[in-house]
Amino acid sequence: MEKSINKIGVLTSGGDAPGMNACIRAVVRTGIYYNIEMVGVMKGYQGLIDNEFIPLPSHAVSNIIQRGGTILKTARCMEFKTKEGREKAFRNLQAQGIDALIVIGGDGTFSGAEVFSREFNVPVIGIPGTIDNDLFGTDFTIGFDTANNSVIQAIDQIRDTAASHNRLFFVEVMGRDAGVIALWAGIAGGSEAILIPEKETAIESLISKLAEGAENQKSSSIVVVAEGEKSGGALKIAEEVKRRFDHYDTKVTVLGHLQRGGSPTCFDRVLASRMGYAAVKALLNNVEGKMIGMVNNRMHFTELSLAISRHSPFDEELAEIAAVLSI
Ligand code: F6P
Q1: Residue 97, in any domain of the structure
Q2: Which of 71, 93, 130, 178 has the highest CB neighbour number within 10 Å of its CB?
């Protein structure tokens, strides 16, 4: 039987990502356009459990499309992993008269959504908002492009000082389980090497590559390291390289959370707007239990259970391009 949707709740969960606000705006404005009452849930699933709801009229989302972070705040909520926590959340949702939920976040967010929608038969649509771009079922996640742009701006600036001093810089970027930011920003920043969790780091070949570069008159070198790189991370690798190859003065820069902030790029704003619009339309068409994605520049739905079961496939061609262009 078709469920009638009159009131939709929206929340952001997990790590914030630039473009989440643009997405909230799109969800709210689309809902209102179709005469749906829109409600915000504060602090992700924690707000569902703690009964923190706010009305979202159209003006509540004015002047946020350009802002990083999330006006709804976000959290990684342990209590929602328990049955008791989810029961509380469901009771609050019912008391609010909310018929469906739109959750914006990463795989942790979707795991919670998948269980919750199954247990309590609540229609849920997931929107991928994470800088990591590691979700199965979408070519891009909201925030990835902005994070990459922040990283390459930092790399460009580091390159200036690296070249002036003949230095070797190890730049650590985010990505606990995935090296997608490292790969993209490494290529765009013209890095000499990219070290990521998906590939084993071979110190020997890294050193020979750096040595070759030095012989070929490279005055500086930049190695981009994903934080999830498996042989010990940027600091440890830099130590090891420094011990065995002293041509350059070696430095480490950990970019950290600056990658998560900032005004979203045009690409992220448009992606967020498309996904937010499509998520509301999906619920109105009785589509549920799915993550929206963008595949080949078209909106595409993937079962939440499938989206959380694997990561996006690793792009071997990009890795090859990075290796070829960094000689
Ligand atoms: O998932 C997004 C992300 O920024 C990862 O790249 C990073 O490993 C993690 O979140 C950091 O999480 P937190 O902000 O909780 O330290």
Answers
A1: yes
A2: 130
Question: Which residue is it, tokens 């792009």?
Answer: 315
Q: What is the 3-state secondary structure (H, E, C) of the chain?
A: CCCCCCEEEEEECCCCCCCHHHHHHHHHHHHHHCCCEEEEECCCHHHHHCCCEEECCHHHHCCCCCCCCCCCCCCCCCHHHCHHHHHHHHHHHHHHCCCEEEEEECHHHHHHHHHHHHHHCCCEEEEEECCCCCECCCCCCECHHHHHHHHHHHHHHHHHHHHHHCEEEEEEECCCCCCHHHHHHHHHCCCCEEECCCCCCCHHHHHHHHHHHHHCCCCCEEEEEECCCCCCHHHHHHHHHHHHCCCCEEEEEECHHHHHCCCCCHHHHHHHHHHHHHHHHHHHCCCCCEEEEEECCEEEEEEHHHHCCCECCCCHHHHHHHHHHCC
Domain that holds residue 194: 145-260
Same domain, 215 and 248: yes
Reported as a single tens digit per residue, the pLDDT across 129-177 is 999 999 999 999 999 999 999 999 999 999 999 999 999 999 999 999 9
Number of domains in the chain: 2
Tell me the two tokens of residue 306.
């499938």
Domain presence at residue 1? no
Tell if the pTM clears 0.90, that is, is over it: yes
φ, ψ for residue 295, nearest 5 deg: -125, 125
Ligand 1 probe mutation, 78, 148, 176, most atoms within 8 A of CB: 176
